[in-house]
Specification:
single chain; about 270 residues; 11 helices; 8 strands; about 40% helix
């Protein structure tokens, strides 16, 4: 029996699986995926969640931001991943302005799930997106709410900066977390927030939390695949780590990432913010 057949025989990971892992304080892993080949490799290496991120605009399309990525492109790449996926949970980003109005978000999220095969959609924003999250939740669409650094708001935030370092902005992110969970968000993703703030949010909400540059207390950790392989051009973000260094294959690098997250070795203090 080959590795792919063994992987296919393992239990399928659902939202309930991730909730159960949270309740058991068992760490879960997430990496971005944009195509079928990497999907198979990531599953074989033990990744629990595949995030089809609009980061594809930067790492695949060569754009400066995620903003130009279209809904059609997200559906295409999500379908590439979902066709190859055997057991991992698939989250897909709602691209820039595809969720500007609740009913618009409902239509577009339904396409990401129906045509793309996503299991969960990820929406950037806090209180302002609560009505949208509530509508999607009521219609049976699971939502991961993305808080902290919001790449789709890069111009409003004047760049890719750590969020929540002052008392006012930290309180806003705490309030946003409470608002989106109350509206029905099934998961949170915290990006580039101070460790102490992330710890407060993890303790305050009853849904699984994925971190990227947030805190080791988050139930899951995510990185952009190309960043953790050290092949993204330009300066590497503080929260990332090149797992390919010292390994002889991509699959070995991903397995190293899985082991590091599961054991609590990643993220280390040098990957986090005060």
């Amino acid at each position: 029996m080959n590795m792919q057949q063994q992987q296919a025989q393992l239990p399928t990971i659902s939202l309930a699986t991730i909730r159960s892992m949270k309740d058991r304080d068992e760490k879960f892993t997430c990496l971005t995926a944009y195509d079928a080949s990497f999907t198979v490799l990531l599953e074989n290496a033990g990744i629990d969640i595949l995030l089809v991120g609009d980061s594809l605009g930067m790492v695949i399309q060569g754009r400066d931001t995620t903003l130009p990525v279209t809904l059609e492109e997200m559906i295409y790449h999500t379908a590439c991943v979902s066709r190859a996926r055997k057991r991992a949970l698939v989250i897909a980003d709602m691209p820039f302005m595809s969720d500007a109005e609740p009913t618009q978000a409902l239509t577009n999220a339904a396409r990401l799930m129906g045509e793309g095969g996503a299991h969960i959609v990820k929406i950037e924003g806090g209180l302002v997106m609560a009505d949208t999250i509530r509508l999607l939740s009521e219609r049976g669409i699971p939502v991961c709410a993305h808080l902290g650094l919001l790449p789709q708001s890069v111009h409003k935030m004047s760049g890719y900066r750590v969020q929540g370092r002052d008392e006012q902005s930290a309180r806003q992110i705490l309030d946003d977390a409470a608002s989106v969970v109350s509206a029905g968000a099934d998961m949170l993703l915290l990006e580039c927030v101070p460790t102490g703030l992330a710890d407060q949010i993890v303790a305050a909400v009853d849904v699984p939390v994925i971190g990227i540059g947030a805190s080791a207390s988050c139930g899951g950790q995510v990185l952009v695949l190309y960043d953790m392989l050290g092949i993204s051009p330009g300066k590497r973000a503080k929260f990332s780590k090149n797992f390919l260094a010292g390994n002889d294959s991509i699959e070995a690098a991903v397995k190293d990432f899985v082991q590091a997250v599961k054991s609590g070795q990643f993220p280390a203090p040098e990957h986090l913010y005060d």
